[in-house]
Amino acid sequence: MVRESATQSDRAGGARxxxxxxxxxxxxxxxxxxxxxxxxxxxxxxxxxxxxxxxxNLRQLATAMHxxxxxxGRLPMGADCTVAQRISRCHTWVEYxxxxxxxxxxxxxxxxxxxxxxxxxSAALNDLLIPSLLCPSDPKAGLFDNKRWLxxxxxxxxxxxxxxxxYSPSGGPLHMNWCPIPxxxxxxxxLSAGGGARRxxxxxxxxxxxxxxxxxxxxxxxxxxxxxSNTFLIGETLPQYSDFAYYFVSHMxxxxxxxxxNTAEAAHATCTWECYAPTGGFNSRHPGGVQVxxxxxxxxxxxxxxxxxxxxxxxNRKDGQIxxxxxx
Length: 328
Known about the structure:
With about 325 residues, the protein is an alpha+beta fold. It has one domain (about 45-325). The protein has helices at about 5-10, 20-70, 95, 105-110, 120-125, 265-270, 310-315, and strands spanning about 80, 90, 145, 160-165, 165-170, 200, 205, 230-235, 255, 290-295, 300-305. It has a five-stranded mixed beta sheet. A two-stranded antiparallel sheet has the order 1-2. The N and C termini lie far apart (about 90 Å).
């Protein structure tokens, strides 16, 4: 007798090849569910990597500030404006840090005696892109058209591009031509005026309560009487929302703590007038907060829900309030 092959026997017994449509759909559903669970984890890992890179960039800038201070006895000016310039097309804090962040070649091209919008400065600053000055968590970080704010402050006319400012020095609770959150009683949140720029017929800088002013004044660490570990030095921001958030704009180029962290996007969506004030604080694309460097060079996290008064105290270098981020 000839025996049936195993395959023929299976077929005769009702066995089948492959999967039914229902079984296939179940398998696809399970794979989709697993991918759905895996995707957020992958995204979280990627954001953690971007966040760490951003933190490293901030640390590099804070170290550069400390090295500059070691040599010069003070931090760089927020904006090195002459009386004639007042607030327009002056050289900014970051240009003076170029030798300390591996940009000596760019620094050597700049003539600090001339405005930023004339040769050789315009060629050196426009279209300049330095990856370590951009936060990789922000997909919009990069070059922006110089027309965004009347081009009178930028290193070039409309149609030319310069680098948006992803990291802003801290001006503390600084008045930015107006204060989106009005002055409290006592006033701890709306100090100085005009971003600390030059004002009046004598062109004197008004200064700022923080470690930097958007004008020709430079503070040393000895001016920080509240303690370096208790005072903001520099933090993240989102240049797409603030017209003055360019590295080479010399007006309103410091961050204010008058507005809480990560409020720029919502403010920009509803603001119709002088929007640089409500968008001029610390902002990021990191979920839940922003990264800052304290004046002692330590890296800290500031949550979106930080107490408002505490936030003002941490921005002010000399208010007599010894505040700590451990209290947030």
